[in-house]
């Protein structure tokens, strides 16, 4: 589990309790991760369509899609409870 989940808590007891609550929600977090990954796939296929470039504002559309994909990656990483807390990731900083 990433340390980001518990960095707001002060005591080891609070952290332990909160980690237990998160682990109890594993099935929900896994489903959320699946849904977000599906959304990323939809965005990835949309950005490869030729119609994307038919619009003079295609660069803005492309930037929007890339931003959405980046935004979706954060909750996907957070919902992977098997990550090591010590592992340095973009969202842990």
What characteristics describe this protein?
93 residues; mainly alpha; 60% helix
- The proportion of residues forming helix, as a percent range, comes to 55-70%
| Count of runs of 4 or more consecutive helical residues | 3
Which stretches are poorly predicted, pLDDT < 50 over at least 5 residues?
A: none
Structural class given helices, strands, pairing? mainly alpha
- Could you spell the SSE succession in H and E letters? HHH
Sheet with the most strands, sense and barrel status = none
Distance between the termini: 15 Å
Global geometry: elongated
Structural domain tally:
1
Give a quick rundown of the structure:
By secondary structure, the chain is mostly helical. It has helices spanning 12-24, 26-47, 58-78. 60% of the residues lie in helices and 0% in strands.
Description:
- Helices cover 60% and strands 0% of the residues.
- By secondary structure, it is an all-alpha fold.
- It has one domain.
- Helix 2 packs antiparallel against helix 3.
- The protein is elongated and about 55 Å long.
């Amino acid at each position: 589990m990433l340390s980001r989940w518990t960095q707001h808590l002060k005591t080891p007891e609070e952290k332990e309790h909160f980690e237990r609550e998160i682990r109890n929600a594993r099935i929900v977090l896994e489903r959320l991760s699946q849904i977000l990954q599906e959304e990323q796939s939809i965005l990835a296929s949309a950005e490869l369509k030729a119609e994307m470039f038919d619009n003079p504002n295609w660069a803005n559309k492309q930037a929007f899609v890339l931003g959405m994909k980046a935004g979706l990656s954060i909750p996907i990483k957070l919902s992977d409870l098997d990550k090591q807390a010590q592992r340095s990731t973009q969202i842990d900083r």
